[in-house]
UniProtKB/TrEMBL annotation:
Pfam families: TIG
Signal peptide: none
Source taxonomy: Eukaryota, Sar, Stramenopiles, Oomycota, Peronosporomycetes
Gene3D superfamilies linked: Immunoglobulins
Name assigned to this protein: IPT/TIG domain-containing protein
Superkingdom of the organism of origin: Eukaryota
Matching CDD domains: IPT
Entries under InterPro entries matching the protein: Ig-like_fold, Ig_E-set, IPT_dom
Record-annotated IPT/TIG domain positions: 105-195, 197-281, 283-372
């Protein structure tokens, strides 16, 4: 182009060059002495291009030294190659044909991840511009330089972080020319953080069903608030939720049964073993419970659970309604739980007929069955139905819950009779109280032995007591039992479910054996149940249920005698 080329011609010439399509040119200010100025506008932004600058003071012998300085703009991403020749008189240059390659100045936009452990080894993806695929591509973490690991393209490559000197932030800079002379590193000031050592204090729960989809709480730290926190269950990596600097939550994925490692990373790459094994087990379930009903307010019903895949763990538990209670492991198919009081937010007790209650299984092919198949529709009872489920980790509960019926607590107010003489004959005792339920489990307990009760009304029961197993009262000593002729006391209690008995402390007194000279018929049990032997009879020893006539040649003119008299004639 001539030195006085017009702006349109220059724009056409520049636009024909590679990478300069669409270049705009306008004429600048007019300069005297035949000098011209043009204003060139490029469609893309180009960074500073380093040029060679000769240090004239270093000219000597067979070599000279140069340095690059940022002098002008305008070269594309591939830079430009120029011949390098030398001259001693500034006119006659050599013709050696050596080429110098000007490359665009690189810059760093981001680092991913931007933090890692102090021991190093983190593969960091560097994103920026004007990276060159050469063996001299370098990263510098603080004062420690390292070669590029993998060149991806001119905007991305990877570096492995070296070990750090201290925890904290360092600047990461890069250079395309990291082999010879004084390397020119970028000044983008992107920060990489060397994290403090991560410690794990607890994992809860440390086990779960093979179906997964439950939360696992990991405490320890420090945990940096980033979107790159991950948990790895065996070989499966899942996203973690940051809760605080000492707590994260992970959702366990489905996995096969067994014991596996649980690892955690703060940068999505460098995993740390929690050193707490994580156990996957078969999904637990419930097949039946006993009893299926209990008091609502006294609570404490001990439920025997027949289940599947139960695990001997401190987290083994039952959920009664919405309340979780600890479980007692017996075997892989047996456990025991204690019911809590009926929660206040459960809706309370409502009147209902027992035949209306049933268990509905999850499997639609199984259907349902009645809890009280032989019960009558009347009377109605104040009750509330809740579901009993089990869990091996106190978090994931079985889908196959079994219904449990809370009922209004029964109370015992009085009994009749309140005392009786010892007898081999069964003893009939009426119990008066409130909220008795007509079930086959209805029972009464005298001393240490339980007997079936007969439902009369919701306020009256009849108990037939035979050969009760008594315990001694407060007068008992370790080496002495009371004489059977002495009175003894025992608590009388009733229960709707045969397990949870009243605590009203109604006392029944055993008066001992029927005394000498008296007989105690079955029909007259109680305090007035002893009858003196009539005249002409005798009642020898103790425990007589009937009198004996005096034999021939003997008589007895008195009552309540233990023997007859010989006739004088």
């Amino acid at each position: 182009m001539p030195f006085n080329v017009d702006a349109t011609t220059m724009a056409q010439k520049l636009s024909s060059l590679p990478g300069l399509t669409g270049t705009l040119v306008s004429l600048g200010r007019v300069v005297s002495n035949w000098e011209y100025e043009w204003i060139v506008t490029y469609t893309h932004a180009y960074l500073d291009v380093p040029l060679l600058e000769l240090d004239k003071a270093s000219v000597a012998g067979s070599a000279v030294y140069t340095k690059t300085t940022r002098l002008q703009k305008g070269f594309g991403i591939d830079g430009v190659k120029v011949a390098v020749e030398v001259s001693s008189n500034n006119q006659d240059y050599s013709t050696s044909g050596n080429v110098y390659h000007y490359t665009p100045t690189p810059d760093v936009y981001s680092l991913h991840p931007n933090h890692g452990p102090l021991i190093g080894g983190t593969e960091v993806v560097v994103t920026g511009i004007n990276f060159q695929n050469t063996s001299s591509l370098r990263c510098k973490f603080g004062e420690r330089a390292t070669a590029a690991a993998t060149f991806i393209n001119s905007t991305q490559f990877t570096c492995i972080s070296p070990s750090g000197l201290n925890e904290g932030d360092v600047y990461v800079e890069i250079t395309n020319d990291g082999l010879f002379g004084e390397s020119i590193f970028t000044s983008s000031r992107n920060v990489f953080t060397y994290d403090p050592e991560m410690k794990i204090d607890s994992v809860f729960p440390s086990s779960g069903p093979i179906t997964g989809n439950f939360s696992v709480q990991i405490t320890g730290g420090p945990f940096k608030k980033t979107d790159t926190i991950r948990c790895k269950f065996a070989e499966i990596v899942v996203v973690a939720s940051w809760m605080s600097y000492d707590e994260v939550l992970c959702t366990a994925p489905p996995h096969s049964q067994g014991v596996f490692t649980l690892e955690l990373t703060r940068n999505g790459q460098d995993f740390t073993d929690t050193l707490i094994p994580f156990t996957y087990y078969e999904e637990q379930g419930v097949r039946s419970i006993s009893p299926t009903f209990g008091p609502a307010h006294a609570a404490g019903t001990r439920i025997d659970v027949d289940g599947v895949a139960l695990v001997n763990s401190s987290l083994l538990s039952c959920r009664v309604g919405y309340v979780v209670t600890p479980g007692e492991y017996i075997s892989p198919t047996k456990m025991r739980c204690t019911t809590p009081p009926l929660p206040t937010h459960s809706g309370g007790l409502v009147p209902a007929s027992l035949p209306e209650y049933r268990n509905q299984y999850v499997d639609p092919n199984v259907g349902s069955f009645y809890l009280f198949p032989d019960a009558h529709y009347y009377p109605q009872y104040f009750t509330r139905l809740v579901s009993v489920e089990v869990s091996n980790n106190q978090q994931d509960f079985s889908l196959s819950g079994i219904n449990f019926l809370y009922y209004q607590d029964e109370t015992l107010e009085a009994i009749a009779p309140t005392q009786a003489f010892d007898s081999d004959e069964p003893l009939l005792i009426f119990a008066y109280g409130q909220n008795f339920i007509n079930t086959t489990a209805l029972a009464c307990r005298l001393g240490l032995q339980t007997f079936a009760a007969t439902f009369v009304t919701s306020k009256l029961l009849l108990c037939e007591v035979a050969h009760p197993m008594l315990y001694d009262d407060s007068r008992r000593s370790s080496d002495k039992f009371h004489d059977l002729t002495q009175p003894r006391h025992a608590l009388f209690e009733v229960s709707n479910n045969g397990k949870d008995f009243t605590t009203s402390h109604v006392i029944f007194e055993f008066l001992g054996a029927c005394p000498t000279g008296y007989f105690c018929p079955k029909q007259l049990q109680g305090s007035n149940g002893k009858i003196p032997c009539p005249r002409g009879t005798y009642c020898p020893g103790v425990g007589n249920s009937a009198f004996t006539l005096c034999p021939r040649g003997a008589y007895q003119p008195k009552t309540a005698q233990a023997a007859c008299l010989r006739c004088p004639i």
